[in-house]
Fold this sequence. Notes:
By secondary structure, the protein is mainly beta. It has no helices and 11 strands. 34% of the residues are buried. The model has no long low-confidence stretch (mean pLDDT 96).
Amino acid sequence: QLQLVESGGGLVQPGGSLRLSCAASGVTLDDYAVGWFRQVPGEEREGVFCISRSGRINDYANSVKGRFTISRDSAKNTVFLQMNSLKLEDTGVYYCAAMTLNNPDTCYRLYVAYSYWGQGTQVTVSS
């Protein structure tokens, strides 16, 4: 059974950086497409970034273009979300999620497509 654990959240000033980690246990995370989602109270969970099983393909929200990147580390069985130039509106609880896909070069930022979820990590951008 795949279990996901996020870490790396915290309080940061606007313009700062954080790196979130999504560590998997139980199975190989390379067998799954992985997405990062952000949720703010009262709003729908937003797909921020996703990465395909192969790692060759990713997709991201326009709001994070040029600021966030996603990567896999197979040796650590972990997916990272590097967040730079953080803005106030990046505040929220960040979740990683995993889904099985036959195509190794596909991922989706639609939260209903994902079966496995971590517990979330809080990111607060504030001056």
